[in-house]
Amino acid sequence: MSNTSLATGHEGTLRDQATAYFQRIRSGEMGALPAVSALILLAILFSALSPFFLTKLNFANLFVQSAELAVLACALVFVLLLGEIDLAAGVTAGVGMALFVVLNQKMGIDPLLSVIAALAFGSLTGWIIGFFVAKIRVPSFVVTLGFFLGFQGLQLIMLGDGGIYRVDIPAIQAIMNSNMPEWAGWGMLAIMVVGSFLIALWDRSRRTRTGLATRPISMLFIRLAFMAVLGGIAVAILNENRSVSIKAIAGVPIVIPIVLVIVFIGTFVLDRTLFGRYLYAVGGNPEAGRRAGIDVAKIRIAAFMICSTLAVVSGLLHASRIGSVESTAGRTIVLNGVAAAVVGGVSLFGGRGRMMNAIVGALVISIIDNGLGLIGLPAGINFLVTGGVLVGAATIDALSRKRSGGSILRT
Amino acid sequence: MDTPLIELVGVKKSFGPVDVLKGIDFKAYAGKVTALVGDNGAGKSTLIKGLSGVQPFDEGTVRFDGHDVHIVNPKQASNLGIEVVYQDLALCENLDIVQNMFLGREEVAMGTLDEAAMEFAATKALQSLSVRTVKSVRQKVSSLSGGQRQTVAIGRTVLRNAKLVILDEPTAALGVAQTEQVLNLVRRLADNGIGVIIISHNLADVFQVADFISVLYLGGMVASLATADTNYNDVVGYITGTKSLEGAAS
Ligand SMILES: Nc1ncnc2c1ncn2[C@@H]1O[C@H](COP(=O)(O)OP(=O)(O)O)[C@@H](O)[C@H]1O
Ligand SMILES: [Mg+2]
User: Fold this and answer.
1) Chain A residues closer than 8 Å to B100 by CB
2) Ranges for the ABC transporter domain (chain B) (predicted)?
3) What is the number of structural domains in chain B?
């Protein structure tokens, strides 16, 4: 029996690994590659077209502006992985924030408690949506469209027609408007690089102990070097004074580590826990999941709960950035959120996608918004371009699915 | 001969007024391949569903390894070591081979998935079947051919320490080369000491791989024969009902 050996994909030199990677891409497993390419192309394009695009101030703004979209896209990944959708995610965030101001300002409840109540409201909403989808089997498109309409009404009732409430709690304003001290930015990068290194070592030691092949360690160092260099450049730029007035503005915006922590936890859950594995399984083939003993309904409900709760977090970021809660919040951002996830490489058919896809996609959508704004094109163009990019990304998704599905017939 | 791994005596099953299984006797042995053949509607699937607990039998005795058992749900069947590979395989295309083989029974260490342990065990299970046709155990199932998918589904039963593996039409959708691969796999499964029941419409396959052939005809077992003692024409005769009950009653 020793004459048969099965590969695990970890064998071989750096060159073998690279060959295998290109093979996967050709067979349709493109992941975030199209989005990363788009990101680079767009950055080059806008730098050429606008002298303001490459300024330090705009660089920081880009991250801050994309943060709420990025978190919303991360939220949507959990339901998109099931092949479901949550069109109500934006207005769930809106009602969550309305609840926050009603509790905090009208009823004088502690801000932290009010935030917790808003998050709890998100979880409850997700549970109800999930119940309709998983137990009663109403298509999620219809359930969440219903919530999308209903919650707009709830926002109006809670805040009044045209109602806007200022949010002037310093801790909440700080989320999107404050920066970390210089050393903390470097510390954050160090934690990321060393943390990634330790996690990778841990994984390698598990494999070695079990007697399995490990990828060339040089691959790990290349990845870490990439991370350190790109991260180092970003931190260095963000640590410089980017103010256009006398008062200095410098440091990594606080929201960046917040988003990174969400991405880290989300990735951990998806890649390394039973729940994550079952989420992919149910998204790929619910019947296979059911036969394997997975409680499919429970997984679906949990996914909607995570989505709605994270959506409220994104709403909090929005309220922090603009300093107020309005009765129309969240109506349009949800479509951008879906666009971001899909553009980043999350499949609308379910079963394929990661947190990082959502982040890259959110950056693409934000860079389009930001760049077109700087060039001074009319706002209508923005919608047209974003819509076009979404259809393009969905087309890539459908084609790559067809290509990898087509291999069933291959012998 | 030794004790059968599974033995059915006088098993009956009806749906309302329709008697689908009319008192079936059936045996299968560890380390042997027993083919279950019969025309459409003969009751093969009903027999399998009874054994796997999906649709328990109404009447009759089921003995597993010499002990009387009542299999009333799939979990019980699985606990006994009975695994069924259904025709649609039930694999997740977006997951890789290891992930599919362990689906629902993942190894967990310190609250997280123990990928190394799973990869190791899955590789070992496939090696025990001398599988050489897959490039990597971390390949996604979407990139596998029909025969390779069947391999994954069969490998999964080995991983679950199955004692009895039931295969429903494993070669129905496959070409010549892949059919050969899967039949080799079935043979090796039996050579590893596992009892195998294979449902097939293809008598060439049956004669190639099976040690015993049991023929169902309209809900009755009309023949249970050693492959060596029979021939193609006789089996066709039993299946179509033109030949009946020779030595089957014993
Ligand atoms: N759930 C059911 N309800 C009613 N009749 C059934 C049911 N399942 C099977 N049958 C009948 O039992 C007979 C045997 O079916 P089946 O076991 O599927 O045969 P085979 O697998 O040999 O083709 C058929 O006549 C079929 O119509
Ligand atoms: Mg059948």
Assistant:
1) 288
2) 6-243
3) 1
Residues A374 and A229 grouped into a single domain: no
Is A363 part of the contact surface with chain B (CB cutoff 8 Å)? no
Domain ranges, residue A325: 32-44+52-178+253-404
Tell whether the torsion through CA atoms of A322, A323, A329 and A333 is positive or negative.
Answer: positive
CB contacts of B175 in chain A (<8 Å) are 411
Look-up of token digits 């030949």: B243
Mean pLDDT of chain A: 91
Strand partners, B157: none
Q: From the alpha carbon of B42, which atom of ligand 1 is closest?
A: 22
Per the listing, tokens 């996830």 go with A341
Q: How far apart are CA B55 and CA B48, in angstroms?
A: 9
The whole-angstrom separation of Cα A143 and Cα A151 is: 12
Measured in angstroms, how far is the CA atom of residue B79 from the centroid of ligand 2? 24
Picking from A249, A270, A300, the residue at the C-terminal end of a domain is A249
Sign of the Cα pseudo-torsion (A92, A95, A101, A104, in order) = negative
Residue from the list B106, B132, B147 with its beta carbon closest to the beta carbon of A4: B132
Question: How many domains, in total, are found in chain A?
Answer: 2
Position A261, amino acid: V
Q: Residue B113: inside a domain, yes or no?
A: no
Query: Which range among A35-39, A88-92, A155-159, A375-379 shows the weakest confidence by mean pLDDT?
Result: A375-379
Tell me, what's the ipTM?
Answer: 0.90
> Which residue is closest in CA terms to ligand 1's atom 6?
B15
- Given a cut of 60, whether residue A117 has pLDDT beyond it is yes
